[in-house]
Amino acid sequence: MSNEIEIGRGKRGRRAYTFDDIAVVPSRRTRSTHDVSTSWTIDAFTFDTPIIGAPMDSVVSPASAIELGRMGALGVLDLEGLWTRYEDPEPLLAEIASLPAESATQRMQALYAEPIRAELITRRIAEIREAGVVVAGALSPQRTAEFYETVVNAGVDLFVIRGTTVSAEHVSKAGEQPLNLKQFIYDLDVPVIVGGAGTYQAALHLMRTGAAGVLVGFGGGAASTTRTTLGVHTPMASAVADVAGARRDYLDESGGRYVHVIADGGVGTSGDIVKAIAMGADAVMLGVSLARATDAPGNGYHWGAEAHHPSLPRGRRVQVDQVGPMQQILHGPAISADGTTNLLGSLRKSMATTGYSDLKEFQRVDVVVTPYE
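Predicted structure:
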């Protein structure tokens, strides 16, 4: 049966679903939460939780990356953020949090116009590595060729190439030299996570480059205005399921090579995490969920790289309700019933309620779709 609907006489579109449109359905079996594992492995690295801190200055600093690592998660440092442009960005983070709404974008554009310094990339990565946790850093596709050698030489464990949308084939008539992902990944000695991707075909192309993981979605979430400015949007339940289908087909095509699917965007509560994994994700990349922490570097505000683009901002600085320290957000105890604290406890409870003992099993859980009005 076709999933397409007629929008008008000259256009048809595929029906797609957000996480709000679906629900997980319990089966005949339940189990104890003590018998549930939320660990996952990518390349040579195993984590206790399928949580990745998004490379946003409001979410991940060297200190919060270390804290996330010690809690069994992974923090990805934005290597184009304030931490690699300034010796001491703490006063600037505080300034961003204090800006009036009408001048925030313009001031952030000025702050992020400062050049990225290779020696600061090396220093920040070394700081995280010295703490003994897995080190992950992110660059945009536009900056990867310029700084990847610095990043790899500094000792990064996982390299993330993250943009609004990333393709395996960038076409240009302007004379620019696009990043050849397949050759780039082949030449690197570290696993690469790349995205975002929102469709089966785009994800399959990225998997064929040799990526260890593919980011699903456009990453901005609560702080993004990409839908408003570009008209681009990815209903995440359908996108994750599509990319999980590409993973399955690539597994057969490649003779057994498994590429991890990471939901990146639209994951704001513990229920969204549950649904992302139910649709086929191996892990989730969180922005606003972690920006709510009282010890997050955003000081009660959240923004991404799109918010300070020099010519076309596609995001904004948003105020978030601070609900507790990062430890409480991940591991509880929860102090409210809104899905913002004890994210891992909620995931464990959902897995136990539906009778699944690990994340790979839970990807097979039954779901239902809420009928359209």
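Summary: The first helix runs from residue 62 to 70.
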